[in-house]
Amino acid sequence: xxxxxxxxxxxxxxxxxxxxxxxxxxxxxxxxxxxxxxxxxxxxxxxxxxxxxxxxxxxxxxxxxxxxxxxxxxxxxxxxxxxxxxxxxxxxxxxxxxxxxxxxxxxxxxxxxxxxxxxxxxxxxxxxxxxxxxxxxxxxxxxxxxxxxxxxxxxxxxxxxxxxxxxxxxxxxxxxxxxxxxxxxxxxxxxxxxxxxxxxxxxxxxxxxxxxxxxxxxxxxxxxxxxxxxxxxxxxxxxxxxxxxxxxxxxxxxxxxxxxxxxxxxxxxxxxxxxxxxxxxxxxxxxxxxxxxxxxxxxxxxxxxxxxxxxxxxxxxxxxxxxxxxxxxxxxxxxxxxxxxxxxxxxxxxxxxxxxxxxxxxxxxxxxxxxxxxxxxxxxxxxxxxxxxxxxxxxxxxxxxxxxxxxxxxxxxxxxxxxxxxxxxxxxxxxxxxxxxxxxxxxxxxxxxxxxxxxxxxxxxxxxxxxxxxxxxxxxxxxxxxxxxxxxxxxxxxxxxxxxxxxxxxxxxxxxxxxxxxxxxxxxxxxxxxxxxxxxxxxxxxxxxxxxxxxxxxxxxxxxxx
Length: 562
Fold this sequence. Notes:
By secondary structure, this protein is an alpha+beta fold. Helices cover 23% and strands 31% of the residues. The chain has helices at 2-21, 394-398, 427-439, 454-470, 473-490, 495-505, 514-561, and strands at residues 34-37, 44-45, 59-61, 65-70, 76-82, 87-88, 96-99, 103-108, 115-120, 124-129, 144-147, 153-158, 165-170, 175-179, 184-189, 196-201, 208-212, 216-220, 227-232, 241-244, 249-255, 261-267, 276-281, 287-292, 297-302, 307-313, 320-327, 332-337, 349-357, 362-369, 385-386, 407-408, 415-416.
């Protein structure tokens, strides 16, 4: 009897204590994410990083380049390095030196890895083209200059889905929307009574959110300039930052009345009360948030701190869960965030930061890695991400059209043109539906029987393949260059007429994307160079003939006199 009672008591105690042991332990595939610092040979060393006190990242990165704002006497400049050019930097390294004042912010174009925008203390925004090989000399010729702010421009942000749409905020309390392709102002927003501390777009670019020195966060319609909602985000007087978590929720960082650093999550339609507010610590550095739409993780890096905290965002209360932190003994001046398509899938790298050291002239890459035993592609870590392809142009967006970003596969690098919105169907369902349609696509095609002999079919297939290979784009270009250019211009009589004939007879396809535009531009440059050579050859030939005629005339005169 006594033993039975003891067994029942043990069972009751175990059943009651077991849940408490695991209370608060949440299942997540990102629980064990860790930060991996780079080795010494992988650092960007000897970079004169700017000492400006402006609250900006001072760094931007994409799969081709990393741009870092530098300290230059008598003006503003930033250095652009190829992503693989690590090690000690030469003191005479070429820089972008077109601004007359200190550079305050730089951002890469999300749809063109060779275009970078910069804003400066000289009240201008400039766009620059960086060649694939990097800079060979100081660059002071910009593609386009945007003038409209009356005071220095502090922050710039590219539109996530529309091509050539750029937002800027200045110390004149204005937020301006630009068409960077034409240099025109699409809209001017003047609802802020004080300096704007940060600006961000939501996922589809239909809203922008700003934080201001008046301690308010605002959700604004960028096309009309109307304030949809506003409210006090943080009671502290220091700078606050904001980012969009999706199309509806916001995350802000700031300070409390007692100077405690805080993060808060909001619904952008109601900014009177936050969905959740969390105290981080009591440090004095401004917290910069960085959000990854694919993994739903937000990273917090404080200026002057040595650590990076990372959280996971969920759709249920409390909406944010602390995961871990990367701790380093070197304080940071700023951070550059690599886009997801630049991360290494073989290392299970889900994010990469470029840390600017405060005490040393060093830029250090830091990789955030999910530990996995298998070296195969991890589908759950890499859903379809934003592709470098715009969903619409500037005029379409300004006229009221809103489209989600074009997605691409991290495994194949191919853009998914037709995709379903993330809110209605999961990535796994979309992937399975696409595979299903591709697998059974042949059932929707009409089958026509062919009763020819097998040897005839084989000969016909071989002939068709040969014709297809001969009609490739390379063969077409080679034939056009060899026949239409060389044969025409070797015996040129009238350069202008022949050029017009060549332009009429050459029927290239109209460029449909940026890559085709680059190829068309390169092809036109080659044709122009060949034309110049032919014209120069013709001029030399004419000069030789004129000299020969003058010689013959002089000889005839001499013979007549004799």
